[in-house]
Amino acid sequence: MNWYITYFILYFGMMLGVAWYYYYKIKTYEEYMIGSWSTGFWKITGTIISTNAGAAVFIGWVGLGFTVGFSGYFKFALVAYIFSLLLVLLFAKPLRRQKLFTLAELFTVRFGGRAGMVPSIISAFVYSVPTIGLQLVGMSTVFNITLGWELNTGLFVSTILILLFTILGGLPATIITDAVQSIIIIIGLVILTVSVLAHVGGIGDLFSNTSFTYLSPISPDGLTDTLLYALSVGPFYLVWQSTWQRIFAAKDERTALTAGITGHVIVAAISFFPFLIGVAARQFVDLNMEQDLVFSYVTNELLPAPVAGIIFVALLAALMTGATSFNLQGASNLTRDFYQVMIQPKATNARLLLVSRLSVICITLLGAGAALFITNINDAYRWALMVNGVILVFPFLAIMFWKRVTKAGVLITMSGSFIFILIYPYIGLPFDQALAGYVFSLILLIVSSLCTSHDKTEVVMTAMRHKLVNEERHKKEQE
């Protein structure tokens, strides 16, 4: 336990020290939320790796590999990074050209007025809040395994640590620590993977002693189940605001593209390790163990405390960076898309900076509340991805490619899709919820746009080819 305490004090001391440094350095809202659009290649690459390696990777995906095998990688992790790469390859340059803060702001500059309110609310409360809850559950589990704390005690301490770091340092502190933490995360995953493989006799013995069911890229329930599962998680990554923030924060279009590709290729490769660990764990872990406990159990049982401490620090690094990215995402929605649009368009930079930090507190505390109700990390995360994807993916693609899409059509589609995906489980239809949701969203978007006219506030252009932000119009709207 002394090793763990020493490691944790050093780690959190370093994190809070960096945050304290940036507290005095950050002077504007732009610096706090988006790094003044000036972040370089290696920092963007590092923060992509760290943000993508949160509770889902270390805890959820080890557990998924333990329960379903390698098919979990192909129907969840790989498809997530394929869609992330599609976002970067197709849209990094045109999105960076817009020079925005949030996904919702793209809707505002395209349609005018308060069109960004719906995606802002969805992004802040349907995604950011539950995913912060996932990171808090992960951190409290680590404290429970290593220090013997009650889960609620761990949850309280985790909430305080995340609040302090994010309030003080904002996105600049998150990005600079992410760059360092990405190295810790990779080292930690490699150490644990090598240790687990050595424990089961090597990769050859693992494959020979494991049923093909757990080695196959297709899940035990068949190809259809694998594809439908992939559909429920993959498309969301086109509208994942954490990736958008990294695109916006890049110093130029080229950096947004090259760092985005590099970061996601690296994380797609290292994310196979958790599934390998999970499959190997089936050789020596009680098969009735809850899947969210497998990672911590394996680490604590196989490795001596000095080495296990490195793994747990890597896990805490992943969870910490995930939580700070997600609460900054939600806070930017509340500050930029809600407060500045709905309440105070003429707010000063100092006021926006204050509201940003207050929004971080709000989103983090709601996440802590959500953590009390999370019983399975993979299921909770998958639900959040599916709901956000169904609501936002087709409206986003329409903004990028379809000039005929209308403000009314987008608002009808987002509101209607949200209601549809929530009530669908109670309708009793035999179709997969994600498939039905995406089909409904696409049809509703096309029909409602064709049946309505462009609003006078719209910029009737595609974001793929044009810069939608009209500085003069924004200036007039705020006067």
From TrEMBL:
The keyword Transmembrane helix applies. It is found in: Cell membrane. It is a multi-pass membrane protein. It catalyses: L-proline(in) + Na(+)(in) = L-proline(out) + Na(+)(out). The keyword Transmembrane applies. Pfam families: SSF. The chain crosses the membrane at residues 6-24, 44-66, 72-92, 124-149, 155-176, 183-202, 222-240, 261-285, 305-328, 349-374, 380-401, 408-427, 433-451. Keywords: Cell membrane, Ion transport, Membrane, Sodium, Sodium transport, Symport, Transmembrane, Transmembrane helix, Transport. PROSITE patterns: NA_SOLUT_SYMP_3 (PS50283). Belongs to the sodium:solute symporter (SSF) (TC 2.A.21) family. This is Sodium:solute symporter. It comes from Oceanobacillus locisalsi.
